[in-house]
Amino acid sequence: MIVRLIxxxxxxxxxxxxxxxxxxxxxxPYYAYDEIEVRAGNGKDPSATVRDETERIxxxxxxxxxxxxxxxxxxxxxxxxxxxxxxxxxxxxxQRLTLVIGGTFGTGKTLRERAEFVWSLSDLTFLHEWARIxxxxxxxxxAKILRNEPYxx
Length: 153
Description:
Layout: E1 2-8, H1 14-27, E2 32-38, H2 46-60, E3 67-76, H3 79-91, E4 96-101, H4 109-114, E5 117-120, H5 128-146
Parallel strand pairs: 1-2, 1-4, 3-4, 3-5
């Protein structure tokens, strides 16, 4: 299965970019991985920014594409539950699962309504760039769990 991540804006912080690249490399033996960055809105008008970013993300999604939206109001998962959910998607025959990380102001209602699953990383608020690191790390951890490989022991 291909895991694809669509995220708003590029990573600007060097140590975040290095951490993401490290987890992308760790993930390669387990999943084919693809990442798309869409241009951020101007941020001056939050509702216009959300609308513009939502449209840019939607253009990257095919009709009927399976995707999960990351949103702080979604469902939190343990690492084991994430692994089981990813495994179920793969066993269901999905060729690709796309994960969407919206911008600073979130995403439009249409993306949330179309999402197969809305995933919350935490009740905590993270810097936008950090969400990408956390998602990559959790994908890697889930892959290790599914293969019964040690991760941190």
